[in-house]
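Memo to structure team: turn this sequence into structure tokens by end of day. - J.P.
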Amino acid sequence: MVIRDELYDIGMRQRRAMFGTQGADARVDTTTDLNDKLEDFVTRTTFGDVWQRPGLSLAARSEVTFAMLLANGKEHELRVHTEGALENGVSPVALREIVLQGLLYCGIPAAVLGVRVLREVFDARGIGDVLDGEAEATRMKERS
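Reply from structure team:
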């Protein structure tokens, strides 16, 4: 049984802000005996409590979450939290830089996963591959 209280309401507002209706209402409205306590925990504790704490901004929480999911190779959740990070104001360049940092500390497979997920989410959002012109500047420098 999902507990509908103030934490639940706050958590649902946060989930909707980050993931839209499909990522929020659709998840909890279709719970079953198998997953209702999981969705209750995610809504109330994760988004209704911890994500509301004052010590980090939503963008910083998104960056940390993205990095931890990258480090653990959690592809589905990484994709979901890429969407949430963008909604929380994390720039595409910052997400790329987290993947680059992950290359150093998590390895090539994690970075490849991160780039693949970013490309998919960015393409779906119409962001594309040109973020800051760094690649083109490098190519131009090599040509001269």
